[in-house]
Write a structure and sequence with these properties.
With 51 residues, the chain is an alpha+beta fold. It has one domain. The protein is 24% helix and 31% strand. The strands form two sheets. A two-stranded antiparallel sheet has the order 1-2. The chain is elongated. It starts with a strand and ends with a helix. The structure holds zinc ion. Zinc ion binds next to loops.
Length: 51
C-alpha cells in the first residue's frame, strides 16, 4: 500500500491525500501550489508571506 502524505506548509501537520481530495486545502500563490491542512493555515501563511 502506498499512502501519500503532504505536509501543511504552515503548521507542518501531515495530511493524507488518500482519504479525501477535499480533506486538504490547497491554493495557488504566485503560480505555485501551496498545500495546507485547512483554510485557516492557508490564510495565516498568506498574511505571513505578504507582510
Ligand atoms: Zn495546518
Amino acid at each position: 500500500m502506498s499512502s501519500k502524505f503532504v505536509q501543511c506548509e504552515f503548521c507542518k501537520t501531515e495530511v493524507s491525500l488518500d482519504s479525501c481530495e477535499f480533506a486538504k486545502y490547497h491554493t495557488i500563490i504566485d503560480g505555485k501550489e501551496h498545500v495546507f491542512c485547512c483554510v485557516k493555515c492557508a490564510q495565516k501563511d498568506e498574511k505571513k508571506t505578504k507582510e
